[in-house]
Amino acid sequence: MLGIESSCDETGVAILRWQPEAPGRGLLAHALYSQVKLHADYGGVVPELASRDHVRKLLPLVREALAEAGLQPADLGGVAYTAGPGLVGALLVGAAAGRALAWALGVPAIGVHHMEGHLLAPLLEDDPPEPPFVALLVSGGHSLLVEVKAIGEYRILGDTLDDAAGEAFDKTAKLMGLPYPGGPALAKLAEQGRPGVFRFSRPMTDRPGLDFSFSGLKTQVLLAWQHSDKSEQTRADIARGFEEAIVDTLLIKCRRALQATDTHRLVIAGGVGANRRLRAELAAAGEKDGFRTYFPRLAFCTDNGAMIALAGAIRLAGGQHQGEAVEVRPRWNL
Ligand code: KG4
Ligand code: ZN
């Protein structure tokens, strides 16, 4: 299975030999090209530039992955591509290339939901989680708590009412003058921050429910930053306070979701899943409360082709595939 990811600013390609008992062992190759430098001058992703760069990089990456796997195109048995949600032009590049390759090779193609890709990414690790589990999906575009009764059977328990967790990281970083992409930069800065100097609220944890809201935190940080001495140490202290607020909020809601569903396995995925404090705090809470945590390796938290190849392989094995139209869904609920 060839997997193609092109929903935003990363071109990801991977080749996976499907083996249900240990999916990660079947990963033969994966290649990624990040457009971060291209968009840095603009402080965010420029959709048209993203599409054009996917056009330039996609086929060379496919060749690279085939070479790494020691395969010829004719060895491929199927092609999976991200069909949404994401930037329409960027998605169309992956969909058109994926569909065309599948047609030329006479193999089935399948359009994959980007968030299902994220959700399944922990299955690429050794000792993968078995459903039922609860998944916390935290990326630049989404903050979801999902009950996974079986692969493909998802119930949304909680969603964000405004900014996604990653978006909150990015916007907060930007307003404190950190370079794009802000999330990882803010997390790095937070390591130098002192605990307890700034304390921000844990939004929506004082009432029942599993939804999130992160946009108010951003405003709290803005006010704190504007009224501060703007020194490097203060910036780090604010970053620390902000990160703690987000991590704490996510932890509280995860605990609630596990209790509400009487589940003992928690999967964390999506770009914010790469956050060290989040990983450490959730793992520690799991040991204390008696639930197990499952994370993808760091490279498979953020966007990648491997998760798309896996989601596509699972769906194809389940008998699903697509007609020949190149169709994408920029907005698409899981
Ligand atoms: O999953 P992803 O690569 O793309 C989307 O599907 O959105 O997630 C990207 C998001 C960005 O908002 C980025 O700032 C955030 O994940 N992110 C992080 C970290 N690494 C990436 N946020 C906090 N801490 C990190 N270490
Ligand atoms: Zn993503």
UniProtKB/TrEMBL annotation:
Its EC number is 2.3.1.234. Fe cation binds at H114, H118, D303. Pfam families: TsaD. Belongs to the KAE1 / TsaD family. Keywords: Acyltransferase, Cytoplasm, Iron, Metal-binding, Transferase, tRNA processing. Required for the formation of a threonylcarbamoyl group on adenosine at position 37 (t(6)A37) in tRNAs that read codons beginning with adenine. Is involved in the transfer of the threonylcarbamoyl moiety of threonylcarbamoyl-AMP (TC-AMP) to the N6 group of A37, together with TsaE and TsaB. TsaD likely plays a direct catalytic role in this reaction. This is tRNA N6-adenosine threonylcarbamoyltransferase. Residues 27-309 form the Gcp-like domain. It is found in: Cytoplasm. It comes from Dyella agri. One of its GO terms (molecular function) is tRNA N(6)-L-threonylcarbamoyladenine synthase activity. It catalyses: L-threonylcarbamoyladenylate + adenosine(37) in tRNA = N(6)-L-threonylcarbamoyladenosine(37) in tRNA + AMP + H(+). Binds 1 Fe(2+) ion per subunit. Substrate binds at L137, V138, S139, G140, G141, D170, G183, N275. InterPro entries: ATPase_NBD, Gcp-like_dom, KAE1/TsaD, Peptidase_M22_CS, TsaD. It comes from the Bacteria. The lineage of its organism: Bacteria, Pseudomonadati, Pseudomonadota, Gammaproteobacteria, Lysobacterales. Its main location: cytoplasm. Its cofactor is Fe(2+).
